[in-house]
Design a protein that fits this description.
7 helices, about 180 residues, Beta Polymerase, domain 2, about 15% strand, Nucleotidyltransferase family protein, alpha/beta, single chain, 2 domains, 7 strands
Length: about 180
């Protein structure tokens, strides 16, 4: 198994470590949420937690599997005693962003295992979804950070915003992005 410095690890390092461990135990887990922003912006944003959506198995075995790498369940979170700055969550699935459940995640190979993360485009949609439905302006700003750092599919983003009935958010997003160039 890979080694990790829990006291100083980044969101990406913890994702690689936990994601590989979950894959070894048969879980298809997709990293979503703010940690994806952190990874795609190389730490320009720090989330404080990692959210994994489990796509294929019951979560009944999660406490046992997470305990093998030192994480104990406290409420809805998994905490490692040496990792004071990050914790793990497993929000309920299925994997969807707003009304869209046809998400195509990206796979990365880590020491012979395949782990999954939202694509940059879906990460932007995810952040804009929080802006649309929860009025979370900080999530709009996170979407901008990802768009500045990564290539994304503008037409797919526009279609998604139209599907959510919020083409105005797409226009606001593109206008803000253009101002920052």
């Amino acid at each position: 198994m890979m080694r990790i410095d829990f006291k100083n690890c980044s969101e990406e390092e913890l994702w690689l470590y936990v994601g590989k461990h979950l894959a070894i135990h048969g879980f298809e887990a997709v990293l979503v949420g703010g940690a994806v922003v952190s990874i795609y912006t190389e730490g320009a944003y720090e989330s404080g937690d990692l959210d994994f959506i489990i796509q294929n198995l019951s979560k009944d075995r999660l406490p046992e599997v997470m305990k093998k790498i030192g994480f104990l369940k406290k409420g809805k979170n998994y905490i490692h005693p040496d990792c004071k700055h990050l914790f793990i969550e497993f929000p309920p699935g299925p994997l969807s962003i707003g009304e869209d459940s046809s998400i195509k995640e990206i796979e990365r190979e880590v020491h012979g295992s395949r782990i999954k993360i939202l694509s940059p485009t879906d990460c932007i949609k995810d952040r804009l979804s929080s802006y649309i439905y929860f009025k979370a302006r900080e999530c709009f700003d996170q979407a901008i950070l990802v768009a500045k750092a990564q290539k994304f599919n503008k037409s797919a983003l526009r279609r998604w915003c139209e599907g959510e009935g919020r083409v105005d958010v797409f226009k606001e997003f593109i206008n803000q992005l253009e101002k920052l160039k």
